[in-house]
Amino acid sequence: MGLFYTSIRARDLKKSVDFYTKRMGMKVVERWSPVPGEKIVNLLSKDTGQRLRIMWYSKECEWYEPYKKGSEMDHLVFDVDDARKEYDRLVKNGAKAATKLFERPGMAMGFVKDPDGIWVGVRSEEGRKKK
């Protein structure tokens, strides 16, 4: 198991991407919108290979919440060999489920909450080698 990425919420997606690329030297590696009202930008640190995911939600998105101080941290995701097995283990051992496990071809991911309510995900992807 290893930390795969850290995710933050942005009030202004363009300003956040500009900050992390122009000031912090990160590189945009992917932009996508998996559901209506959600925009995701994945960045990579050129020096360390660490990943940062910036999330933006419109009011129409199920994940939207009004901005409040302290809600900037969105979630952490750990890369695991078997997301279903790890998710079930976490819930069985008392972690509170934040989402159901969701799967698409070749990938699975689910979220639980840490003691402070931060969402922590486990994900697995077929053919992906763990470091």
Q: How would you explain this protein's 3D organization?
A:
- This protein is an alpha+beta fold and 131 residues long.
- The chain has two domains: 71 residues, 2,3-Dihydroxybiphenyl 1,2-Dioxygenase, domain 1 (Roll); 52 residues, 2,3-Dihydroxybiphenyl 1,2-Dioxygenase, domain 1, CATH 3.10.180.
- Helix content is 16%, strand content 43%.
- It contains two helices and nine strands, in the order βαββββαββββ.
- Strands 1, 2, 3, 4, 5, 6, 7, 8 and 9 form a nine-stranded mixed β-sheet that branches.
- A hairpin with a 5-residue loop joins β2 and β3.
- The radius of gyration is 15 Å and the shape is globular.
- The protein starts with a strand and ends in a 6-residue tail after the last strand.
- The model has no long low-confidence stretch (mean pLDDT 89).
In short:
With 131 residues, the protein is of the alpha+beta class. It contains two helices and nine strands. Strands 1, 2, 3, 4, 5, 6, 7, 8 and 9 form a nine-stranded mixed beta sheet that branches.
What is the number of independent domains? Answer: 2
> Could you estimate the helical fraction of the residues in percent?
10-25%
Outline the biggest β-sheet. 9 strands, mixed
Derived from helix and strand composition plus strand pairing, the structural class reads alpha+beta
Count every beta strand, where a strand is a DSSP E run of 2 or more residues.
Answer: 9
Report the C-alpha radius of gyration, rounded: 15 Å
Supply the CATH class of the largest domain: Alpha Beta
Oligomer: single chain
Named CATH topology of the largest domain: 2,3-Dihydroxybiphenyl 1,2-Dioxygenase, domain 1
CATH architecture of the largest domain: Roll
Broad shape: globular
State the end-to-end CA separation.
9 Å
Query: In what range is the share of β-strand residues?
Result: 35-45%
Low-confidence stretches: none
Give the name of the CATH superfamily of the largest domain: 2,3-Dihydroxybiphenyl 1,2-Dioxygenase, domain 1
Q: Look at the structure and give the mean pLDDT.
A: 89
